[in-house]
Amino acid sequence: MIKSRKNAGAKGNEKMISYITGALGIAANVLIYQQKSGKKLLMFKLISDILWVAHYFSLQANAAAAIAVINIFREIVFYNKDKKWAKGKPWIVFFVACSIASAIFTWKSAFSILPATASILAIISFRKGDPHLSRNLAFPISACMLTYDIFCGSVMGIGNETFTLVSAAVGKKLNRKTAEQA
Question: CA-CA distance, 41 to 119, in Å (whole number)?
Fold first, then answer.
């Protein structure tokens, strides 16, 4: 049986850092799926990723921390997708390969694959820059991360995925109403 670590690596200051960065990450994530512009969506995602790196490292949840580092670079490339250097499918292949490699190098249990799976789905979502697609893919992405957060004992991560699911559902409903009124 695989046992949860329940914040085993977090002590004192690390625990405080995990709660503060997690709370700020939740705030950024709630705003992600409310955006109508793909650029704004990616900007909030970049801010969120920076906060989650600190959060997961403070918990020694290395699979999620490594993915968050990769995601920072991914968001920078995708934010600049209209520039020549950031165009093309090689970036998608590169980030998918990085996600897979991350799962291999941070492997502790079968749960280690969940952040990489979420990342690969997010690559599809954020590369397209389509808020509608991002809201739809938020559900399987959050299911992967929610499961990992339960395993590694990330209280703020659990809260984040709950808020992300609610935020994506609200954003989807609000945009559906706006489309119907137009």
Answer: 16
What is the pTM assigned to this prediction?
0.79
Structural contact between residues 141 and 122, judged by C-beta atoms closer than 8 angstroms: yes
Q: 86: which DSSP letter?
A: G
CA-closest candidate to residue 106, choices 161, 152, 40: 152
The answer to whether 97 touches 105, Cβ cutoff 8 Å, is no
CA atoms within 13 A on the CB side of 150: 10
The predicted pLDDT at position 3 comes to 44
Question: Which run of H or of E encompasses 71?
Answer: helix 62-79
Q: Decide if 168 contacts 139 (C-beta within 8 A).
A: yes
Which among 101, 84, 97, 19 is positioned nearest to 52, based on CA atoms? 19
